[in-house]
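About this split. The held-out portion is used to measure sequence recovery: a designer receives only the structure tokens and must propose an amino acid at every position. Recovery is the fraction of positions where the proposal matches the reference. Here is one held-out target exactly as it appears in the evaluation file.
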């Protein structure tokens, strides 16, 4: 019997806490599936704030306070509640010290990783960028930070420098965003399983497991 291969596409941003939580729950669902070896997870680009200035950053607590019209301490409490949910998924986040910055260059490097060694390297780079942002409070829009994280993850220095110095993969990032909008996604995380089943938000593990099982029951070529 031919084993069905399945791709799961995940639209996300490295500065989105719910994206990290959602991917963690998806990974848990896959870990409990006997067919996990037949699944490939590919990340697609989606910028939470494409208007964020390139080359500058500000404390995220101030951005959220302004966005929701609350005091900074209330914004900090909102962040702490998200941190607790992340901790339940094994994710270390210190959201109050995160920085609001443009992520287009981070997404371009994720496309480089995908094109270099496939989804495995892309997922590793994404995880490292998420840690840099949420755990370490680094500016993932800063080229020095991006260069160090990308090289430490396994990308070649010269290739990383070449991408950061130009606009390579910018079209791929824009194409990902257009595809998400075409699917009807208005935010992230957004998951598309087997090009047939779409899910929005950081769904519970049980929901991911149910959708995976449904997709695998579909006959090949259906």
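Reference sequence for scoring:
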């Amino acid at each position: 019997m031919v084993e069905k291969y399945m791709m799961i596409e995940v639209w996300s941003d490295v500065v989105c806490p719910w994206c990290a939580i959602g991917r963690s729950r998806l990974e848990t669902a896959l870990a409990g599936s006997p067919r996990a070896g037949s699944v490939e997870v590919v990340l697609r680009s989606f910028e939470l704030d494409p208007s964020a200035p390139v080359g500058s950053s500000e404390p995220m607590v101030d951005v959220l306070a302004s966005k929701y019209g609350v005091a900074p301490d209330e914004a900090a409490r909102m962040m702490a509640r998200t941190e607790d949910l992340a901790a339940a998924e094994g994710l270390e986040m210190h959201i109050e010290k995160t920085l609001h910055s443009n992520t287009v260059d981070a997404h371009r490097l994720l496309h480089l990783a995908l094109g270099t060694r496939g989804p495995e390297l892309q997922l590793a780079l994404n995880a490292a960028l998420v840690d840099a942002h949420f755990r370490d409070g680094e500016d993932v829009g800063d080229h020095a930070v991006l260069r160090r994280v990308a090289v430490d993850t396994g990308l070649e220095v010269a290739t990383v420098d070449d991408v950061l110095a130009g606009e390579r993969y910018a079209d791929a990032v824009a194409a990902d965003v257009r595809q998400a909008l075409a699917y009807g996604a208005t935010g992230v995380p957004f998951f598309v399983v087997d090009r047939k089943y779409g899910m929005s938000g950081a769904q519970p593990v049980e929901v991911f497991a149910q959708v995976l099982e449904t997709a695998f029951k579909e006959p090949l070529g259906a």
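Annotator remark: The chain has a mean pLDDT of 93.
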